[in-house]
Write a structure and sequence with these properties.
The complex is a heterotrimer of chains A (130), B (242) and C (96). Chain A has 130 residues and is an all-alpha fold. In chain A, 57% of the residues lie in helices and 0% in strands. Chain C has 96 residues and is an all-alpha fold. Chain C is built from 3 helices and no strands. Classes of the chains: A mainly alpha (130), B mainly alpha (242), C mainly alpha (96). The interface between A and B is large, with 65 and 62 residues.
Chain lengths: 130, 242, 96
C-alpha cells in the first residue's frame, strides 16, 4: 500500500483505505459514554470521561497522520520532508493537559460531595442539602 | 430519570451517534493519506519564523491566543479544585506518620529527583527545537518533584514544595503569558504577535517569543500540577473531619 | 500493508480493547490501574503516529497524574464514608 506523497488525491468523498483508527475512536467514545451513563460510582464516571477524552485524541492524531512521514521537527531534516500534521498535534497536546485539569476539578467536587453526603453513588444523591 | 429509561435513551443516542459518525468517517480524508491542507500551511509558517518544532510554532506563535485560553482553563480548573479542597471549618489536620522506606528506594529517589527536575527544565528549554515544551516539561517537573514523596515521606515533600510560592508562581506565569501578548500589541500589530528576532533555526535562541511563552507555560503547568496534587494529598493524608 | 501500518492497527485495536475494559471495570481503584495502562498504550500509539510530543504529555498525565488523583480521591471517600470494601488501603499512602 504505497501512496505517492505528491499525488493530489481528492480526499473528500472517497472511501478511506484503512478506516480502523477512525472507527476505533468512535468505539472508544461510545464505550466511554456507555460507562458514563450506567455508572454507579461518581469516580468511575470520571474515569469513563477520561476514556471519552482519549477517543478524541485518537481521532485527532489519526486525522493528522501521514503514511511514511516523520514527526514535525525540523532540527535535523530538510524542510521539504513530509511530516505529520502539527496542527492536530498541537490541538491534542493542549487537550491532554487541560483534560487532566478538568478531571481533577470534577474529582475535587466528587470528593466534597461524598464527604458531605456520605455517598459517591450519583443515583443516591436525591437532593442538595446544606 | 430511572436507570432503565436512561439506558434506553443512551442506546437511542448511541445508535444516532454511531450512524452519523460512521457516515462522516467515510468522508474524512483517508487515514495516513497525503491530503493535509493544515500541515501544508502550518509547516512553512513555522519555518518562516525559524521554529524547528512545528507543533510549538502552532501552539505559541500561529494560534497563541487559543493557547492563552487553554492556559486559563487550566489555571481556573486548578484554582477551583484547590478552593473546593481547602480545609473546612469543621476539619482539622493530622500529621501523617512517617513510613519506613527501604534504603535502596531512598538512594534511587535522591539520585532521581535532580535528574527528573533537570529533564523537566531541559524539555521546557528545548521546546522550540525538539519534541517537548512548556506543557510536557511542566508535567515532568511536577511529577519529578513527587519522587521526594516516594523516597522520603510527606513532610519532606511538603518542604520541597513551598505551596504559597508555587501558588504565586502559577498566577504570575499565567499573567506573564498574557503580558507577552501585550508586547506583540505594543511593538507589532496584533496581540501575541511574534515580535522578537527569530534567530537561527536549530539554535536554542530561535523562534522569537516561542521559548519565552514556553517557559511561562512550563512554570504555570508545573506549579499548577504541584498545587493540585498538594490539595489532593492533603485531603487524603492530613485532613480529618470532626 | 506495511509493517508500520500493521503496528498502528494492532495498537489501535489494543487501545480500543483496554478502553472497553476500563469502562467495564466498576471498582474505581482497579479502574485507575486500567486507565494507567490505557495511558501507556495511548502514548505508544501516539509515538507510532509520529506525535512524540503528545506521547510525552500523555505518558506523564495519563499514566501518572490522573490515576494518582483517582486513587487519592477514592482513598479519601472510603475513609470518609467508612465503607471498608477494600482497595482504599492500597497504594503507598495507605500505611502512613
Amino acid at each position: 500500500m504505497t501512496t505517492t506523497l505528491l499525488a493530489a488525491a481528492p480526499a473528500t468523498g472517497q472511501a478511506t483505505t484503512d478506516p480502523l483508527p477512525y472507527l476505533a475512536a468512535g468505539w472508544i467514545l461510545l464505550a466511554g459514554l456507555h460507562g458514563l451513563v450506567t455508572s454507579r460510582h461518581a469516580v468511575h464516571a470520571i474515569g469513563c470521561l477520561t476514556v471519552v477524552q482519549s477517543g478524541t485524541y485518537v481521532l485527532l492524531l489519526a486525522v493528522g497522520y501521514r503514511r511514511g512521514a516523520t514527526a514535525p521537527y525540523f532540527t535535523d531534516i530538510p524542510p521539504t520532508t513530509p511530516v505529520a500534521d502539527p496542527v492536530a498535534h498541537a490541538l491534542t497536546l493542549t487537550d491532554v493537559v487541560v483534560g487532566a485539569a478538568v478531571s481533577a476539578l470534577l474529582l475535587a467536587l466528587v470528593l466534597q460531595t461524598a464527604k458531605r453526603h456520605g455517598t459517591a453513588d450519583p443515583d443516591a444523591l436525591t437532593g442538595l442539602k446544606g | 430519570m430511572n436507570r432503565t429509561a436512561r439506558t434506553t435513551l443512551f442506546w437511542c443516542a448511541a445508535l444516532a451517534i454511531a450512524l452519523c459518525y460512521g457516515i462522516s468517517c467515510g468522508h474524512l480524508p483517508g487515514f495516513g493519506g497525503s491530503f493535509h491542507p493544515y500541515a501544508d500551511r502550518a509547516v512553512p509558517a513555522a519555518l518562516a519564523h525559524r521554529t524547528a518544532n512545528a507543533v510549538a510554532s502552532v501552539n505559541f506563535d500561529q494560534r497563541g491566543f487559543d493557547t492563552l485560553g487553554e492556559e486559563f482553563i487550566l489555571f481556573t480548573a486548578v484554582l477551583g479544585a484547590a478552593m473546593v479542597l481547602r480545609r473546612a471549618r469543621d476539619e482539622h489536620t493530622v500529621s501523617p506518620r512517617p513510613g519506613r522506606v527501604l534504603p535502596t528506594v531512598r538512594l534511587a529517589g535522591t539520585v532521581l529527583l535532580p535528574v527528573a527536575l533537570v529533564t523537566g527544565v531541559y524539555v521546557i528549554a528545548h521546546g522550540q527545537l525538539t519534541p517537548g515544551g512548556g506543557f510536557q516539561g511542566g508535567v515532568a517537573l511536577a511529577t519529578g518533584l513527587h519522587v521526594a514523596y516516594l523516597a522520603a515521606d510527606y513532610r519532606v515533600l511538603r518542604n520541597v514544595r513551598p505551596r504559597t510560592v508555587l501558588d504565586l508562581a502559577d498566577a504570575m506565569a499565567a499573567g506573564a503569558f498574557a503580558a507577552l501578548g501585550l508586547a506583540g500589541l505594543a511593538w507589532g500589530s496584533a496581540y501575541l504577535e511574534n515580535v522578537l528576532p527569530w534567530g537561527v533555526q536549530g539554535q536554542i535562541v530561535s523562534g522569537g517569543t516561542v521559548p519565552l511563552l514556553n517557559a511561562a507555560v512550563g512554570v504555570e503547568v508545573g506549579s499548577a500540577l504541584v498545587v493540585l496534587l498538594a490539595a489532593f494529598l492533603d485531603q487524603a493524608l492530613e485532613i480529618e473531619t470532626g | 500493508m506495511t509493517p508500520v501500518g500493521l503496528l498502528v492497527d494492532l495498537t489501535v485495536l489494543l487501545v480500543a480493547a483496554v478502553a472497553t475494559v476500563a469502562v467495564r471495570t466498576h471498582d474505581p481503584v482497579r479502574q485507575a490501574v486500567v486507565l494507567s495502562q490505557l495511558g501507556l498504550l495511548l502514548a505508544l500509539l501516539f509515538t507510532f503516529l509520529q506525535a512524540p510530543d503528545v506521547a510525552l504529555s500523555q505518558l506523564a498525565v495519563g499514566t501518572v497524574v490522573t490515576p494518582l488523583l483517582i486513587m487519592l480521591t477514592v482513598r479519601k471517600i472510603r475513609r470518609q464514608t467508612g465503607s471498608a470494601t477494600g482497595g482504599g488501603r492500597r497504594g503507598r499512602g495507605g500505611n502512613r
